[in-house]
Predict the structure.
Amino acid sequence: MPASVCQSCAREDEPLHPVKRVYVQPEAWDAEPKITVVDEIEWWCVVCLDHYPHEPAPEALSSGGSPDPGGAPDEGDYTNKPGTPPPRTA
Ligand SMILES: [Zn+2]
């Protein structure tokens, strides 16, 4: 269940969006610029979406609400029965 409070600024009563937080480490004299995407999904308000780096996260991952139309039924028929019917004598 999605949180009702922004996990970045703790603002309430705002529509929240699932995101993955992105840490951007600017280039320094002894370090190269680095971008780290956090694997955990957070819920942010639009203000935070506007101000902080992030990646959009698929909402289905956390809520499971939308059905996935790509799922094909597995038609593999593995019922390979070695049983032979008993011989019939008439
Ligand atoms: Zn926020």
About this structure: Residues 6, 8-9, 11, 44-45, 47-48 surround zinc ion (CB under 6 Å). Residues 17-63 form one domain. The beta strands are 17-25, 34-44, 54-56.
